Amino acid sequence: MNICMIGAGYVGLVSAACFSEFGFKVTCIDKDPKRVAALKRGEVPIFEPGLDDLIARNFAAGRLQFTDTYETAVKTADVVFLAVGTPMRRGDGHADLSYIYGAVADIAPHMGEFTVITTKSTVPVGTSRGIEKRLKELRPDAKFAVCSNPEFLREGSAILDFTHPNRVLVGCDNDKAKAVMERLYKPLKLRNAPVLFTSRESAELAKYAANAFLALKISFINEIADLCEEVGADVHEVASAIGSDDRIGPKFLHPGPGYGGSCFPKDVAALVRTARESRAPLSIIEQVSRVNDERKIAMTKRIETALGGSLEGKSIAVLGVTFKPNTDDMRDAPSLVIVPAMQARGAKVTCCDPEGAKHGAEMLPGVSWAGDVMEALKGADAVVVLTEWNEFRALDLAAAAKAMRGRVIVDLRNIYQPDDVRAAGFHYVGIGRAKVAA
To answer: How far out from the chain centre does Cα 317 lie?
Structure first.
């Protein structure tokens, strides 16, 4: 089976590498010749644990190729995946499908015999039918079918998610295309991974609904955390209690400074927009987005209060700027709101992140960057934890106290134990649990 992957971004690269690991021949197409050349040299443009080795191994074996031309790869493909960006459209929050339809126009002239065109990108309900209509206009002679196959990859564990999924979802209305997709995912079905076939509309909506529900859980536990602080409860005890209920589950019940990343913000906005246009508004989901935006702003006030009500002239060490650990992704990260807000209040900010400086240097102007935690803490009045990288969990509190000028820890991910922080002479501010003073 020959696979053509359009787009060498996060989803495209992970999917292409994993399919080639299954033994399929995969050609990944990207319009940027510099990116293609870099990939051929073994230079992976994104950080994802294990991805560079996976790409190198399959490239060396000849199962994975990279190109910026369409003709041969598309003509010989059994399946053409569309894995291009669908960013939030300015002004209305809808998904921008210009890259999707641009890719459709690029592949149309080169389609050979029966081809399955499949969207890996997250697209609004009805997009598969829109692609089908456009291809019929461009190639009325072509034999093809359009499917929806949304990805459910978590940054930082994407390879495991692809190779050991809790489900594979395929939206398909064509028996011949279904047989192709069954063959494609046979290696996973042999591992007992559920492969679910639905209508195309159901598959497209399920992706948005899943992300919106997870975002809902995050905003919910963040509001519960605020309530815990007021009534003397501990949010982790509450989360453990409710997460033990199988109907709720423990995942995504971790309080923090709000969600970010490439998926949740844009997918929630796109779902809200689709619902409004369909005259079936999702009032609960609309609140999720508002709560999350307000959460990031409120975190700056929390930091300011911890430092006596003013950040003017204060030196702040920020640990973590990516939206989550084990990625270099800065898109809609809480740091992009919180750090500039601290700077606007007169703070001098030094950041430390194992992978965040690559993109953060441009996105967070005026910030100093430290090579390690102790360098970031030197002379700081306070340390603020924004991303729970494992490197930060084993902080030597005694050494930190010697390096810092102040004695304040604002732990927005609750990675430290308040009693330990207090014993080291710090004032501790966490999320959803009692504030501990030295």
So the answer is: 25
Quick one: pLDDT at residue 435?
A: 53
Domain that holds residue 166: 2-198
113 and 244 co-located in one domain: no
The yes-or-no answer on residue 18 being catalytic is: no
Q: Are residues 159 and 23 in the same domain?
A: yes
pTM exceeding the 0.85 threshold for the entire prediction: yes
Radius of gyration of the chain (CA): 24
* Res 437: pLDDT: 45
pLDDT at position 436, please?
Answer: 46
Answer yes or no: do 268 and 309 share one domain: no
Predicted local confidence at residue 434, as pLDDT: 62
The per-residue pLDDT for 262 is 85
The per-residue pLDDT for 433 is: 87
Positions in the chain short of pLDDT 70: 434-438
Q: Measured between alpha carbons, how far is 353 from 322 in angstroms, rounded to an integer?
A: 8
Q: Do 241 and 105 share a structural domain?
A: no
Q: How many domains does the chain have?
A: 3
Q: Please tell me whether residues 9 and 53 are part of one structural domain.
A: yes
List the catalytic residue out of 18, 28, 228, 263: 263
C-alpha to C-alpha distance for 248 and 217, rounded to whole angstroms: 9
Residues 185 and 322 in one domain: no
- pLDDT score, position 357: 93
Whether 435 is in a domain gets the answer no
With respect to residue 436, please indicate whether it lies within any of the assigned structural domains.
Answer: no
